[in-house]
Design brief:
mainly alpha, 0% strand, 24 helices, 419 residues
């Protein structure tokens, strides 16, 4: 039962959660089943509830064996956002139990670490486990495709994703990896057709909203702004603040009307909540939502909070990015350029993945154009424009605008969705 359920979870299938619940109901004494269910539902649980559930799961897993206890302990660390400890634990776990697909569900711990070297150690681990499992292991093939995406090895990622989908067409990790590779390629309408076809096979897929967001980005690349807005309005929910903001900020940077914006009060509440600044990428997404609303004062305040934070990724990277967003919304692009141009590779410390961090480069390109420096903007986006088959979005970023049509973004009048 475990292998079947774990593979559905690994596939990011819409069947995964019902199967997990059935497994736990049939085997309530199974600690791994209980812990995996927590892993899938932890987003809506408090730390205290997580602890209670996982302590009980660990006690049950200990009775089953050392491997089961190790999996549950890893889930405890991962769901409590103890990512460096989780990563170290996974290295030790795989040394003892190679190829363990249940433990692989926590590979995201490596990319979530802010310390140096963790991402590379995670990549090396995936390479090693894929070699041990063999090319016919579609879960490990998919995870290796994902590492290639983040390494910027687009062609390799695409080939591995296609190989994985050939073995198991419903692999959500492979579909996601292919989508990221096709973003780098600017595949446009071909990527949209693949995504819509793949999603039609499982409307309950875990990534349904996220892959629709990727389709919206491909629509942007083709200049189909109506489709990008449609997906944001019809598919994304009130909880998808980050994806809504990332779509709308791109639309605004390209001089287009945004889709429905997030509720500014809701964004402020999220920032003020206990976990509002727990993770740098989450905070960055909330900053983008503020920028879409041209909430300059809020951005200034957030930049101050980030700048006073003892965590280097907040103090040294997030703070200047948020302050730059404030300058852009205040109509001071030159000041934004000074802040963003010096960050370079430090932007990786914001977390997320390449396509999600790319929006910082987009903002710099627009600020350079609005500050009257088109040559630097063109040089900044040269590789993207030449590598991508569809790049209407990049062309618009490089299009000069009159002062009256420049940023700041103007709050949109669409009603806030209640879904």
């Amino acid at each position: 039962m475990e292998r079947l359920v774990v593979r559905e979870v690994a596939a990011l299938s819409g069947r995964a959660l019902p199967l997990l619940r059935s497994w736990q109901a049939e085997q309530p004494e199974c600690g791994v089943a209980r812990a995996l269910l927590v892993l899938q539902t932890s987003g809506g649980m408090s730390d205290e509830a997580l602890k209670v559930e996982l302590v009980a799961a660990f006690e049950a897993a200990q009775a089953a064996g050392a491997r089961e206890a190790s999996v549950v302990y890893g889930i405890f660390l991962y769901t409590h956002r103890q990512y460096p400890l989780a990563a170290e634990h996974l290295l030790a776990h795989f040394a003892q139990w190679p190829g363990d697909e249940a433990a692989a569900l926590m590979l995201g711990a490596f990319s979530a670490c802010t310390g140096p070297g963790y991402r590379q150690r995670g990549d090396a681990l995936v390479e090693e486990q894929y070699a041990l499992a063999g090319p016919e292991s579609w879960p490990w093939a998919g995870w290796k495709a994902w590492t290639r995406v983040e390494q910027g090895r687009t062609e390799d990622a695409h080939q591995l994703a296609e190989h994985t989908l050939g073995l198991y067409p419903r692999s959500g990790v492979a579909a996601h990896a292919r989508t990221h590779a096709e973003h780098e390629q600017g595949a446009g309408t071909a990527a949209i057709a693949f995504l819509d076809g793949w999603l039609a096979g499982d409307p309950q897929a875990v990534q349904f909203r996220h892959l629709n967001w990727h389709a919206a980005l491909q629509s942007l690349s083709c200049g189909d702004f109506a489709d990008a807005r449609r997906r944001a309005d019809e598919v994304l929910t009130r909880a998808d603040v980050g994806m809504q903001a990332a779509t709308n900020w791109r639309l605004l940077l390209a001089g287009q009307a945004p889709a429905r914006l997030s509720d500014l009060t809701h964004v402020r509440e999220l920032l003020a909540a206990p976990g509002g600044m727990a993770e740098v990428f989450h905070t960055f997404n909330l900053a983008l939502a503020l920028a879409c609303e041209a909430a300059t004062d809020d951005l200034e305040a957030l930049a101050g909070r980030a700048g006073a934070d003892e965590r280097p990724e907040f103090r040294d990277v997030l703070a200047p990015v948020v302050q730059a967003l404030a300058w852009v919304t205040a109509g001071r692009p030159g000041r934004a350029v000074k802040l963003l141009a010096g960050l370079g590779g430090q932007v990786e410390a914001l977390g997320g993945v390449r396509v999600e961090r790319e929006i910082v480069q987009d903002t710099l390109a627009r600020a350079l154009i609005d500050a009257g420096d088109p040559a630097r903007a063109a040089a900044l986006l040269h590789e993207r424009v030449t590598a991508r088959r569809h790049h209407t979005y990049e062309d618009l970023l490089l299009t000069s605008r009159t002062p009256a049509t420049r940023m700041p973004a103007q709050p949109h009048s669409h009603p806030v969705p209640t879904r």
